[in-house]
Amino acid sequence: MAQGIGQAFSEHLVYDRHSGQLLSSSLMDYGLPRADEVCTFEMDENSAPTKTNPLGVKGAGEAGNVGALAAIINAVVDALSPLGITHIDMPATPEKVWRAIRDAPRR
Predict the structure, then answer these.
(1) Which residues contact 22 (CB under 8 A, 6 or more apart)?
(2) Cβ count within 10 A of residue 59
(3) Residue scoring higher pLDDT (67 or 72)
(4) Which domains does the chain carry?
C-alpha cells in the first residue's frame, strides 16, 4: 500500500527534454513515501491455496499497490469534483492539485 501511496502522490521519473538524461536518479530527487507520510492500516489474511503447485503458493507482491492507486486518485478527483475537475494525472503532487484548482472552470 505504501508503494501505491508513493506512486499516487510523489513518485515521478523526470528526464531532460533534450538529452534524455534521467534527472530524478537518486532518492534526493525521487519522492518515496516515508513512514511519517503513510497512515496506519490493518491487514488480514484470506487463505486460498492454489492447486497448481505442491506448496499452494501464489505470487502477490504488489497486490496492495493496485487497489491503493485507484482508491487514492479517485478520492482526489472526488474531492475536486465540485470544482468541475474530472481527472488528474499521477502523481497528484500538491503543485499539480493546486494548478488543477487554479485552472478549474469558474462557475
Answers:
(1) 13, 14, 15, 16
(2) 7
(3) 72
(4) 2-41+62-102 (3.30.365.10)
Is residue 99 predicted with pLDDT exceeding 70? yes
Range 60-64 contact pairs with CB under 8 angstroms and sequence separation of 24 or more: 62/3, 64/1, 64/3, 64/4
Residue partners of 88: CB distance under 8 A and separation at least 6 = 73, 76, 77, 80, 96, 97, 100
* Predicted structure pTM score: 0.71
Output the nine-digit C-alpha cell for 94: 500538491
8 Å CB contact between 24 and 12: yes
